[in-house]
Amino acid sequence: MAKVKGLRCRECGREYPAEPIHVCEFCFGPLEVEYDYDLIRNTVSREKIERGPKSLWRYVDLLPVEEPKVGLTAGFTPLRKAENLGKVLGLKELYIKDDSVNHPTLSFKDRVVSVALSKAVEFGFDTAACASTGNLANSVAAHSAQAGLNCYVFIPANLETQKIYGSLVYSPTVVAVEGNYDDVNRLCSEIANELNWAFVNINIRPYYAEGSKTLAFEVAEQLGWRAPDAVVAPAASGSLVTKIWKGFKELRMVGLIDGKLPRVYGAQAEGCSPIAQAWKEGRDYIKPVKPNTIAKSIAIGNPADGIYALAVTRESGGEWETATDEEIIEGIKLLAETEGIFTETAGGTTVAVLKKLAQRGVFRPDEVVVVYITGNGYKTMEVLEGHLKDVVRIKPTLADFRDKILVRVP
Ligand SMILES: *Cc1c(COP(=O)(O)O)cnc(C)c1O
Ligand SMILES: [Zn+2]
After folding, report:
1. GO:BP terms for this protein (predicted)?
2. Which of 150, 167, 267, 358 has an alpha carbon within 20 to 30 A of 131's alpha carbon?
């Protein structure tokens, strides 16, 4: 494949062929896809992309897949101007990149999985698997069903019921591991060494992670081919944050945008914030933590890409901020009440962090700010119990309607 040169170790720079491998044999650093940007510069254009499918596959020239095989509808989600939320926060040019309506499983994971499983099919695997905090399992199960792959998803046993059903409906084998995500991930790394399965976020990880770049590509195109001034995104493993940054850099490298790149701000739940804590303490290494937060989809205590995500905020001029569980609920409600978007706990975290950053004055009022909403609220409904208005119950009579409802109208 001409556009992909191979894989390269992020630490020592050693090069490898584009195979289903993910760590450097010499230094155990993570491997990353390397492209021939000179070639890509000569083959891509805004016009060609605009004529492409209304999915993330319009950017196939910048993805490590020859021919999409599965997940043909993922991506190209709405970028909405957030007038109401912007007014509350004092931001005139606030936009929401709304992956809560991504297809087919309502989170940004459909991007990474469509790329990972297209690659897995290209490699000839017959079984897909993943270690997941919930959304990844949903997406791997759905895409495996589409592709006719056997599927095993591994999750922490304490996940939200909605997320468990959101996998089970596609009939994969769901393995609930008695432990947190970091335990699940460690187990899966051991299994991946034993079996010839496509673990999308282990041996296929270099390809999987590239799917997140499309969140930068789409935002730039939807803004009329320019980068915003700032973006705010949540972090679990930290991969998404690093790939949003890589995506904007690539667009500039191949000549699709010019000018300044955005400042990248990272959001974590206070109960699981190893990257944000490193930032606040000025460390360039991560101290693993034990997750304790309602934001389960981003509860990774030992984030694989943590140090690279830290480096992105440093390089781009951004920062890290955290939100408590209470602030996360408030964030979910604020987005719903102002913009009519129902997001899950990861989105609540991101909105809460956006609010704190805006209140601290890190954005100028006229800056173009994009907030990434990465998941759907129908998957984490149980966290809202006790936090919403009560339903008003009435008899089916006009009198009762008057007594119980109209008397309250001011
Ligand atoms: C997985 C996930 C993230 C973060 O992903 P990383 O790339 O691991 O940092 C953010 N939001 C949601 C809803 C997710 O499911
Ligand atoms: Zn290496």
Report:
1. isoleucine biosynthetic process; L-serine catabolic process; L-threonine catabolic process; threonine biosynthetic process
2. 267
Neighbouring C-alpha atoms within 13 Å toward the C-beta of 80: 18
Give the Å distance between the CA of 245 and the centre of ligand 2: 22
Find how far residue 324's CA is from the centre of its chain: 20
Is 135 annotated in a binding site? The answer is yes
How many Å lie between the centroid of ligand 2 and the Cα of residue 235?
24
Ligand 1 lined by 373 (C-beta under 6 Å): no
Is 40's pLDDT higher than 60?
yes
Question: Closest ligand to 9 CA?
Answer: 2
Q: What's the Rg (C-alpha) of the chain? A: 21
Whether the CB of 55 sits within 6 Å of ligand 1: no
The alpha carbon of residue 396 and the mean position of all alpha carbons in its chain are separated, in whole angstroms, by 45
Q: Which CATH architecture describes the domain 79-105+206-384?
A: 3-Layer(aba) Sandwich (3.40)
Could you tell me the end-to-end alpha-carbon distance of the chain, in angstroms, rounded to an integer?
Answer: 68
Tell me, in angstroms, the distance from the centre of ligand 2 to residue 67's CA. 29
User: What is the Cα 337 distance to its own chain's centre?
Assistant: 23
Residue 42 pLDDT exceeds 80: yes
Confirm or reject: Cβ of 131 under 6 Å from ligand 1.
no
Q: Which amino acid is at 368?
A: V
| Alpha carbon separation from 141 to 138, 154, 169, 402, 404 (Å, rounded) | 5, 11, 9, 49, 46
Rounded mean pLDDT, 145-152 = 97
The rounded distance, in Å, linking the Cα atoms of 341 and 98 is 8
Mean pLDDT of 258-279: 98
Nearest atom in ligand 1 to the alpha carbon of residue 243 is 7
Single-letter amino acid code for the residue at 147: A
* Ligand closest in space to the Cα of 14: 2
Looking at residue 408, its pLDDT comes to: 77
Domain boundaries in the chain?
1-43, 79-105+206-384
CA distance 405 to 392: 8
Whether residue 1 has pLDDT greater than 70: no
Q: Is the pLDDT of residue 246 over 60?
A: yes
User: Would you say the CB of residue 238 lies under 6 angstroms from ligand 1?
Assistant: yes
3-class SS of residue 103: coil
Pairing status of strand 31-35 against strand 368-373: unpaired
